[in-house]
Amino acid sequence: MAIGYLTMQARTAHEALPLQGVQVTVLDDEQNRIYELTTDENGETRRVSLETMDKRYSQDENFTGTPYITYNVFAQAEGFDSVSVSEIPIFDGQSAILPLVLVPISGQRQGGMQTEIMVGAPAVAMEGEREPEGDLQSGESPQVLRQVAIPNPITVHLGTPNSAASNVQVSFPDYVKNVASSEIYPTWPEASLRANIYAMITFALNRVYTEWYRAQGYSFDITNSTSYDQYFVYGRPIYDSISRVVDQIFNEYVRRQGQQAPYFTSFCNGTTTTCRGMSQWGTVTLANQGYTPIRILRYYYPDDVEIAQTNVITNMLTSYPGTLLRVGSTGLDVQTIQNYLRRIRQNYPAIPAITDQEGTFGDSTRAAVVKFQNIFGLAPDGIVGKSTWYKISSLYTAVTRLAELNSEGTNLGIGTVPPASVLREGSRGQDVITLQYLLSLISEYYPDVPALSQDGIFGAGTKRSVIAFQRRMGLAADGIVGPATWNALYRTYQGIMQNVPTPNPNPTPDTGGSSFTYTVRAGDTLWLLANRFGTTVDEIMRLNGLRSDLLQIGQVLQIPS
């Protein structure tokens, strides 16, 4: 019997907070318990091995059986709704990462609810063809953006376009990893994986570039219906072979020579369904014949298609500099990454403290990068390339956004008694600001409640968030905030405040008691040094026997390393 592997990661607030102590049970299809696990300080379980089918079955399009064995996972933690994930395919030799997104229990509610996710068979075993609408070459597209940009995040509608299904927002690389894990088998040859992933990236970017759904008045970028778009299962596991490829090429896409627009890369499985575009199973045959990814793409699409790259990523604080950062690198880009990692370390204390000089990529910076890469499933090479830069930047945005929201709640003085006003589209004022704040915070923990801008004006975006929240809570989804909606908002807010762990702003240095010397320079303060080196003012004062926070230029300090 072949072996595959599974690791669970319990995190919340767009991964800004790891959840330690989550109890995770792995069961077989007959509900027999195989493993009892607990998440660590990174919100992660140990990797477990599971029996499955030999990989040759998942590489044979004529095999009529199921080329894998499925398992089930149940996760629970005090103060959170439980999560049940069923029919998880395990493949021979593949490591799968299962994200467990736990939602805080609403205040005043007795016990938690259960989120149920069914993964099921990959789409290669399903029928369905993407509609050829939005084909830029046909001139049918309603609207075209001026440049190709990676949407950060991308909004996915979990149903057909006209259905009342929820929308979720995910990072673009995570979206592509999910689609590829849902559409194809991770055991396929790498050239086949790459060709398929290029097609999936390009298909999504075509929908975004043409504003295919947005121009029709929809509030999402793409659906998860295989009759219209690509298969996406929120909360499903991601396979390592697919994850590695996506990390390398997530900002690359297919276009025709002389054109900027992403080509409409339609595809189908090629066995139960055939289409004018790429055959997913056909890519396996071609890869086994020695075809490269671009040659496979040109086999199914026009001969002049090429691979292009975009470095435009929306909502990014800082753009990838375009060069690798490694030991020996210096400059502002290194300093940026160091500062981001120091802030992330408050939420993920397993990341070691950075003790290198500001802007100098030394051994401690490399150690922090390696640990970060290990935690987030990136190649742990200690080098900051585009995938590591993107992940560090995205996570920094998530953790600082969460901290800002928590601070804003304190400033607003959110109490226990909701406002008595009734708000609807067109309303303005302080109560609208309170409403928008509550929805913004809730959207960090409830993936189907969209984020919104806080401007004190009840506009269309606020109404969408209200309706999504009302649907989530089983209320009348009319977009009007009356007593029932106010009470639900406050209960949900109180549940978050009571049950979500607070990150340690001053994680203990992972040093085993070691330290290094530092010579005080002009402008240094204890607070600045503590923030720069990821330690605390109290620890610096303790090590140096200081009774005052006044420093002198040239003074030599011991800094925890």
In short:
The chain contains 13 helices and 19 strands. The protein has helices at residues 172-183, 190-209, 240-249, 280-288, 293-300, 332-347, 363-375, 386-412, 430-445, 460-472, 483-499, 526-532, 537-544; strands at 2-12, 17-18, 23-27, 33-38, 48-52, 69-76, 82-90, 95-101, 114-118, 154-157, 167-170, 222-223, 238-239, 252-256, 267-268, 278-279, 305-309, 515-519, 556-560.
Would you give an account of this structure?
The strands form six sheets. Strands 1, 2, 5, 8 and 13 form a five-stranded mixed beta sheet that branches. The chain is α+β, with helices and mostly antiparallel strands. Helix content is 31%, strand content 17%. Strand 3 (23-27) and strand 4 form a beta hairpin. Helix 2 (190-209) crosses helix 3, helix 6 (332-347) crosses helix 8 and helix 9 crosses helix 11. It is built from 13 helices and 19 strands. Mean pLDDT is 90; it is low at 132-141.
Question: Layout of helices and strands, plus pairs?
Answer:
Elements: E1 2-12, E2 17-18, E3 23-27, E4 33-38, E5 48-52, E6 69-76, E7 82-90, E8 95-101, E9 114-118, E10 154-157, E11 167-170, H1 172-183, H2 190-209, E12 222-223, E13 238-239, H3 240-249, E14 252-256, E15 267-268, E16 278-279, H4 280-288, H5 293-300, E17 305-309, H6 332-347, H7 363-375, H8 386-412, H9 430-445, H10 460-472, H11 483-499, E18 515-519, H12 526-532, H13 537-544, E19 556-560
Parallel strand pairs: 1-8, 7-9, 10-12, 15-16
Antiparallel strand pairs: 1-2, 1-5, 3-4, 3-6, 6-7, 8-13, 10-11, 14-17, 18-19
Helix pairs in contact: 1-3, 2-3, 2-4, 2-5, 6-8, 8-9, 9-11
